[in-house]
Amino acid sequence: MKKYKFTINENDYNVVIKGVDDDNIAEVEVNGTPYSIQVHQSQAQKTPKTPILVRKEVQNKPGENKVAEKLAPMPITAKPSAKTINAPLPGSVLKINFNQGDPFKDGDVLMVMESMKMENNILAERSGTIVRVATSVGATVMQDDVLFEIQ
Q1: Sheet (strand 146-150) strand order
Q2: What's the whole-model pTM score?
Q3: Which distant-in-sequence residues (6+ apart) come within 8 Å of 18 by Cβ?
């Protein structure tokens, strides 16, 4: 509801616009008398209230897609080639499920670690054999410490 004061031909008018519907019919009150009037708008008055954001197209610089390529999932055919299995996070070793010389398969739980009061399973990323167990139960390991050497 908007209130206006007009002076037309030296006569004062108090106008209250109560609302305008979709058909451009306005409900107004002039000096206490209600009226329904049709509002004619020019194209210049029909400007949207929300500004339109105009941006230039983003141009990628050479090498910007390298990060996305590195974060892309590894293809199933690519097997990890590491000769060690490292700790993914710092914690304490709770249980070691394989000993030196034991064969393991892809997805086997090699070890259970506790980190931030949660048990975390250390899984084998490929099949192989344990060459050396580099830690013991109860030991505290830091992130990227070697847990197993594998073949």
Answers
A1: 84-86, 146-150, 128-133, 103-104
A2: 0.46
A3: 1, 26, 27, 28, 29
Domain that holds residue 117: 84-150
Tell me how far apart the alpha carbons of residues 72 and 65 are, in angstroms, rounded to a whole number.
Answer: 11
Residue 78 placed within a domain: no
**Cβ partners under 8 Å of residue 27, min gap 6:** 17, 18, 19, 20, 34, 35, 36
Per-residue pLDDT, 4: 87
Residues 143 and 91 in one domain: yes
Q: How far apart are the first and last CA of the chain?
A: 80
Does some domain include residue 68?
no
126: DSSP letter: S
**CATH number of the domain encompassing residue 128:** 2.40.50.100
In-domain check, residue 24: yes
Q: Is 124 within the bounds of a domain?
A: yes
Lowest mean pLDDT among 25-29, 92-96, 119-123: 25-29
CB distance 38 to 24 below 8 Å:
yes
What domain count does the chain have?
2
> To the nearest whole number, what is the mean pLDDT of the chain?
84
